[in-house]
């Protein structure tokens, strides 16, 4: 049994970084929703980098289990358009 400091269910912020490309936001939200169900619009924030080439997307996920969060991280990290997931 793995230990976690989180108590589930909980709202968990995921920060996903990538290049500022058309459809990046929609891609990330769709990947999160595949594991967590619908994400309300007000649970998604987008911030451009200073030079405008990159974007940081914060998605608040209603996580039910650690395994669910791990699966989201794994899928996002494996995608070629995603540079980093925190």
Keywords:
86 residues, alpha+beta, four-stranded antiparallel β-sheet, 30% helix, 34% strand, globular
Strand content: 25-35%
Residue-averaged pLDDT, rounded?
95
Distance between the termini: 23 Å
What letter string, H or E per element, gives the SSE order? Answer: EHEEHE
Query: What structural class do the secondary elements suggest?
Result: alpha+beta
Structure explained in plain terms:
This protein has a domain at 41-86. Strand 2 and strand 3 form a beta hairpin. Helix 1 runs antiparallel to helix 2. The chain starts with 9 loop residues before the first strand and ends with a strand. By secondary structure, it is of the alpha+beta class. It has two helices and four strands, in the order E-H-E-E-H-E. It has a four-stranded antiparallel β-sheet, covered by helices on one side. It has helices at 24-36, 66-78, and strands at 10-19, 44-48, 54-63, 82-85.
């Amino acid at each position: 049994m793995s230990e976690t400091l989180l108590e589930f269910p909980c709202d968990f912020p995921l920060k996903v970084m990538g290049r500022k490309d058309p459809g990046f936001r929609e891609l990330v939200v769709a990947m999160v929703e595949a594991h967590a169900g619908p994400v309300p619009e007000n649970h998604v924030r987008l911030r451009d980098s200073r030079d405008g080439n990159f974007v940081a997307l914060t998605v608040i996920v209603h996580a039910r289990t650690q395994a669910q969060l791990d699966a989201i991280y794994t899928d996002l990290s494996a995608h070629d358009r995603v540079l980093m997931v925190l």
